């Protein structure tokens, strides 16, 4: 489905910051790594919670937080067009980036890992598999290999992108409930997933 907004400027002209969406970020002195989601909050539920848990106090993090009671998919700007200024600046100042996304699949628990940072991509897959998760190299539309994809707009020109299935993200929360109110209630599966990503980031 085509995006409603072609870029952040179009979105910001219609949607109300602090009501429909918000932008949250944290910078760690000396960190050259960013963990982020351009489709956080209710857009691709579970990605915001992962970003903050993986980054903790070690890495810079950023989330574009969809806050609507429903219909947050309207706030989705595809990664090659995502140009929110704070995100662009933080990624551009980073050596390493990890973008966390969700894709619609309720049939299997799986993570597609892509991006142009092939070494980090392969480490992520290895660590996820070590923790018992299904993961593989992303193909076709989920590959994240476009140079304009925001995860690849680091100072090195490459980053990684994780596309996490709906079923896998549901497993991160008690009763598989990904509503905003319940997303504070994470499972042991969530903790194992976070551990795998932290190990991959080294």
Question: Which key phrases capture this entry?
Answer:
single chain, 202 residues, alpha/beta, Aminopeptidase, 6 helices, 7 strands, 28% helix, globular, Gamma_PGA_hydro_sf, Replication protein, Gamma_PGA_hydro
Q: Oligomerization state of this entry?
A: single chain
CATH domain class name? Alpha Beta
Give the amount of beta strand, in percent.
15-25%
CATH topology name, in short, is Aminopeptidase
What is the structural class?
A: alpha/beta
Instruction: Report mean pLDDT, rounded to a whole number.
Output: 97
The helix content is 25-40%
Determine the number of helices (DSSP H or I, runs of at least 4 residues).
6
Largest sheet: 7 strands, mixed
Spatial sequence of strands, sheet with the most strands: 1-3-2-4-7-5-6
Number of domains: 1
Contiguous runs where pLDDT drops below 50 for at least 5 residues = none
Task: Give the second-level CATH assignment, the architecture.
Answer: 3-Layer(aba) Sandwich
Strand segment tally? 7
Write the CATH homologous superfamily: Poly-gamma-glutamate hydrolase, zinc-binding motif
Gross geometry = globular
For the record, give the distance between the C-alpha atoms at the N and C termini, rounded to a whole number. Answer: 36 Å
Q: Gist?
A:
The chain is an alpha/beta fold.
Model description:
It comes from Cytobacillus depressus. This is Replication protein. The chain has helices at about 10-15, 45-55, 85-90, 120-130, 165-170, 190-200; strands spanning about 20-25, 35-40, 60-65, 95-105, 110-115, 135, 160-165. The chain is of the alpha/beta class. The protein has one domain (about 10-200): Poly-gamma-glutamate hydrolase, zinc-binding motif (Aminopeptidase, 3-Layer(aba) Sandwich), CATH 3.40.630. Helix 2 (about 45-55) packs across helix 6 and helix 4 (about 120-130) packs antiparallel against helix 6. It is globular.
